[in-house]
Specification:
four-stranded antiparallel sheet; 7 strands; mainly beta; OB fold (Dihydrolipoamide Acetyltransferase, E2P); single chain
């Protein structure tokens, strides 16, 4: 964790934190069980998904949905094997 003021001078002017410098609390870790995890949406780090229940991927046949509104996807892995983290989920906190 680094204060936004410390990082700001090193960011390009077009780069903006997803939460305008706020804090994102990790609430869930989605672990790949099958080795066949795939995302249903084109996602990047700190993508915010607006609606709870949105399908974000599949772990084999198991669908993976967002558990709440305004869910941030943190560090989605492009290739996760069994037992590895596919993505972390988080929410903005005040």
């Amino acid at each position: 964790m680094v204060a936004a003021g410390t990082v700001a001078p090193h960011l390009a002017t077009s780069a903006r934190p997803a939460t305008d410098g706020g804090t994102i609390e990790v609430t869930d870790v989605i672990t790949c069980e099958t080795g066949a995890f795939s995302f249903a949406l084109p996602l990047g780090a700190l993508t915010a998904v607006k609606r709870r229940g949105t399908l974000i991927g599949h772990d084999g046949e198991r669908p993976v949905h967002t558990p709440y509104d305004d869910c941030y996807l943190i560090l989605p892995a492009r290739m996760a094997g069994p037992g590895q983290t596919a993505v972390r989920l988080g929410r903005a906190v005040a």
